[in-house]
Specification:
Length: 308
């Protein structure tokens, strides 16, 4: 049987603005490079935030272990857990609210607006759906069972209790959730629809756009035309798999790039978010059997894309 590692202890620091403290586990130090915890923290974070800033955070008691703040001369102990809160850079508020489609003691189904990240990442920390909902609903353990791209709007399933998250994540991993998206894109009568698109999509870390490459398919989507008018169409998009940017890549590959997509077919120079021109992609339906209760669920987004 695989060896089970004990769960890390609960953080001694409360959340801040709906964001959990960062947790570190001090690594082995067989060469004795760090006599104190402070020396390790300076080596680890000094280049990113500055040696003086790291030292000031230690003196201010910002780094905390299970038994209290880390002292400036505290001896280094490999395997010890340390927590701290990052300094949040000011973030522009995304001027749209997060809707709640459903809430019970286990799950929250939210309507995430365009331009709002699902979870803290990179420069988006407090302005995320997770942080906002934790603050607004008073649910400190709230976590998503899956994610939507920041530029995509629509339904996201959140789990109220951290202990339940695995069951709902497994449901997505095993493709037991029917996901239906809606998109607006150019209409081309030469593109035969409906069609099932299969291919291989790869995305490199640090590169904005994903790309289709030769190889064993790892992405599959069904594309259906719902209506068309004035050179544009409304499409029903049914992903079977969940690769990064999958629907955007598949629509672009058909010669039907989604309206107001800043990445496909051409990556545009970043110039800040244009809130008046959101990507025309909406996660419209989530349908599944609850893995905890066995209850069937079907949820529909209350958001809308632009009319044709």
């Amino acid at each position: 049987m695989p060896r089970r590692h004990p769960a890390p202890p609960r953080p001694p620091l409360p959340q801040r603005d709906g964001v959990d403290p960062v947790r570190l586990r001090l690594p082995p130090d067989p060469d004795g490079r760090w006599a104190t915890v402070r020396e390790h923290l300076v080596a680890r974070f000094g280049d990113a935030v500055g040696v003086e800033r790291v030292g000031a955070m230690v003196r201010e008691g910002r780094f905390v272990g299970e038994d209290g703040p880390v002292g400036t001369a505290e001896p280094y102990t490999a395997g010890r857990y340390v927590w701290f809160h990052r300094d949040f850079a000011p973030e522009e508020r995304v001027p749209f609210e997060v809707g709640v489609v459903h809430r019970d003691e286990r799950i929250v189904v939210a309507d995430k607006p365009h331009f709002l990240a699902t979870t803290p990442r990179g420069r988006h920390v407090t302005e995320t759906a997770q942080a906002r909902l934790r603050r607004e609903l008073g649910l400190p353990e709230l976590q998503p069972a899956h994610r939507l791209d920041r530029l995509t709007a629509g339904l996201v399933l959140f789990v109220v209790r951290a202990g339940d998250r695995g069951a709902y994540q497994t449901m997505f991993r095993d493709r037991l959730v029917r996901k239906e998206y809606e998109g607006v894109a150019p209409y081309d009568p030469a593109v035969a629809l409906p069609v099932t698109v299969r291919g291989r999509i790869e995305k490199e870390r640090g590169v904005i756009a994903a790309r289709e490459v030769a190889g064993v398919p790892n992405a599959e989507s069904r594309i259906e035309l719902v209506e068309h008018r004035g050179g544009y169409g409304r499409y029903r998009l049914l992903p079977v798999t969940g690769r990064t940017h999958q629907l955007r890549v598949h629509m672009c590959g058909l010669g039907l790039p989604l309206l107001d997509d800043p990445v496909y077919p051409v990556v545009q120079e970043p110039a800040g978010d244009d809130y008046g021109r959101p990507l025309q992609l909406l996660a419209r339906v989530l349908e599944f059997t609850d893995p905890v209760t066995g209850e069937p669920h079907r949820f529909e987004s209350r958001l809308r894309l632009r009319p044709l």
